[in-house]
Design brief:
There is one protein chain. By secondary structure, this protein is of the alpha+beta class. Helix content is 32%, strand content 20%. The protein has 2 domains: 119 residues, Ribosomal Protein L22, Chain A (Alpha-Beta Complex), CATH 3.90.470.10; 68 residues, Ribosomal protein L22/L17 (Ribosomal Protein L22, Chain A, Alpha-Beta Complex), CATH 3.90.470. The protein has 4 helices and 4 strands; from the N terminus they run H-H-E-E-H-H-E-E. Strands 1-2 form a two-stranded antiparallel sheet.
Length: 203
């Protein structure tokens, strides 16, 4: 079970009768791009902010990069030096705007009079995107799955209702070998075998 943390808003002096707020947490988008988009939509109405972000997605308008502008190309927008088209970030901001609009409608606020008075961006959790393609291991797991399926059919179970509820891996026997080296030497090369256990249950 994953326990989600409790998040608070950075905006101070929040008044529930005058303000409405929304947020998204732990989204996969550039923090630098999000900061520049937040600055661009601050002070706009929800409709104007959404139109601006849709224009960014369609590459009709660029987001001005004022802080993170190192080696950022110029754009043809009037009065803009450095800018980009952060499409992925713009799509996430549109989701926040839609949520903000829904909250305002729920409170009975006048959408035409609403203005974005605060747009805050924080860094989230750092996700390490590391992975491999363990083809040899995957082939061995397929053999275990085939064996599991055969056992279930032998017991007359419904395969469509089976779910793997436990997958356990243990270290097995260590096979000790040696790799020949120069000058009559050798380097130990130990191969650790592995035990795999799968348990499935009907749901």
């Amino acid at each position: 079970m994953i326990i989600m943390g409790r998040f608070n808003y950075a905006f101070q002096n929040y008044d529930a009768t005058r303000h409405v707020r929304s947020s998204v947490r732990e989204k996969d988008m550039s923090h630098k791009h999000a900061r520049e988009v937040a600055v661009s939509i601050k002070g706009l109405s929800i409709d104007k902010a959404r139109d601006f972000l849709l224009a960014v997605i369609n590459k009709k308008r660029a987001v001005a990069f004022r802080r993170y502008k190192n080696q950022v190309a110029h754009r043809p927008d009037p009065g803009m030096m450095s800018g980009r088209y952060p499409q992925k970030t713009a799509k996430e901001f549109i989701k926040v705007l839609d949520n903000l609009e829904s909250n305002a409608e729920y409170k009975g606020m006048d959408l035409d009079r609403l203005r974005i008075v605060n747009a805050t961006v924080h860094k989230g959790v750092i996700v390490k995107m590391s992975g491999r393609y363990p083809q040899k291991t995957a082939k061995e797991f397929i053999k275990v799955l085939d064996n599991l399926e055969s056992n279930a059919e032998y017991k007359g179970m419904d395969l469509d209702r089976l779910r793997i509820v436990n997958a356990t891996v243990h270290k097995g026997v260590i096979v000790k070998r040696f790799t020949p080296r120069a000058m009559g030497r050798a380097t130990a090369k130990n191969n650790v075998l592995t035990h795999v256990e799968l348990v499935a249950q009907e749901i």
